[in-house]
Amino acid sequence: MSHEPQDALSRTALGVFRLNGQFLAVSEKLAEPAGLTAAWWQVLGAVLPEPLPVAGIARVMGITRQSVQRVADLLVREGLASYEPNPAHRRAKLLAPTEAGRAAVRRIDPGHAELAALLQRELGGQEAFEETVRVLERLSRALTALEAFEPGAADAAPSAP
């Protein structure tokens, strides 16, 4: 049996873990002048288009609800976000950015634009950048489709006659 798929999975996972660390590091640098952390920016960014419940933010970002709750509470305490009533669920309040939160995110825009332009150039142009995005989105969709995966479950299933 070929180990190529397993090797590719290992290389992919290691690459994604490294990318995650790299994105977190550059996000911290970008967010710092705005008085934010990467995590604060991430949560604020999730609610810029529309207020969301903490569980919804966690789903969109692929992290735990508890992690988002801690950051959301800090954002509210700092006046960068507020909790609003949720017409769909009495107990699950919606997190919304305040004007101060929106202003903080806007202060990140120049550095964000600069980094995007540098990445575009480094990747070989906008077409290559878009292809990179498509591949990462496809990988995410594939992993979402496999969320129910349990190691060894395929071995336990009865084989076809």
Tell me the strand percentage band: 5-15%
Q: What gross morphology would you assign?
A: globular
Strand order of the largest sheet: 1-3-2
Helix content: 55-70%
The average pLDDT score comes to 92
The residue ranges in which pLDDT falls below 50 over 5 or more consecutive positions are none
Radius of gyration, in Å, reads: 20 Å
Q: What is the tally of helical segments?
A: 7
Counted beta strands: 3
What's the short story on this structure?
With 161 residues, the protein is mainly alpha-helical. The chain has helices at 4-31, 38-47, 54-61, 65-77, 99-123, 126-145, 153-156; strands spanning 52-53, 81-84, 94-97.
Key traits:
single chain, 161 residues, mainly alpha, 3-stranded antiparallel β-sheet
Question: Could you characterize what this model shows?
Answer:
This protein has about 160 residues and is mainly alpha-helical. α2 (about 40-45) crosses α4 (about 65-75) and α3 (about 55-60) crosses α4. The chain has seven helices and three strands. The mean pLDDT is about 90. The two termini are about 20 Å apart. A three-stranded antiparallel β-sheet has the order 1-3-2.
